[in-house]
Task: structure prediction
Amino acid sequence: MDRRKLLFLGLSTLGIVVAKAGDEPADTPNPADQRTLKTLLEAHNKERAKEKLPPLKANAQLETAAMEHARDMAQKEKMSHDGSDGSTPAERVKKAGYRYVRMGENVAVEYPDVERAVRGWMESPPHKKNILGDFTEMGGAIARDFDGRPYWCVEFGTPVPPKPDLTPERAATELVEALNAERKKSSKPLLKRNRLLAEAAQRHATTLAGLDKVVAKDEDGLSALDRVEKAGYRYRRLAEEIASGLDLPEEVVKAWLDRPTDRDNVLGDFADIGVGYAVAKSERAYWCVILGRPLR
Result:
């Protein structure tokens, strides 16, 4: 009877420990297991290469999460995606400091080496889906219980991309460039940056980021358009566009172009523009754009 088992949920240097039932797992790696596990990332990437998929990269945070769970399974002598403390794979990965777009976990018990562990996973459709999944990084670990049974854990992840390094000035410059590129395609006059519009837009964007939500007025009771009028900007037409949760100027412009009402504004009969940009403590970006058609 085949006692080998596996379980899934949809490499830096690997750590290996031996856990005694009822005790805390040992911290000293098993040298033989350590040599064996050096091939784990390579074995995963070999399977991905057969499908012409990009290789996975080693990640120390995913290894930390994998090690925590492998040790926990070995100590409790139970294979599961649930930690003994009730933790989920996602919670363990986050605890290790890994911020992800997507993640997955494969676990197994009894397989004596990398080759047979990976073969077992590849013969199981859900596990195979993780190995060949839309991930870019992985970390793995193995721990043994008191009787020497190996417990395997591999964490897969695609990290959240780094936030763009945008200052308000750079954000404004790039957004105006992106917007004017679209206006040029539509044979519309290019917009010119206006100081009064920009000051009002930046004040409102800063308010939104400070509150971390979209509101109509600043703390003094003035809206961005009220502030433009108060500053003495004389206009025929005035409009405001707000965006949040989008990091790149190109994303903001695309979102507006995809909505008919916003599209009519950003490609409309305006000559001046002011852009405000600020980021909340939650790292959510807030954008405010004021469009104006001045009196001549």
Summary: The two ends are 89 Å apart (CA to CA). The CA atoms of residues 58 and 280 lie 31 Å apart. Residues 168-185 form the longest helix (18 residues).
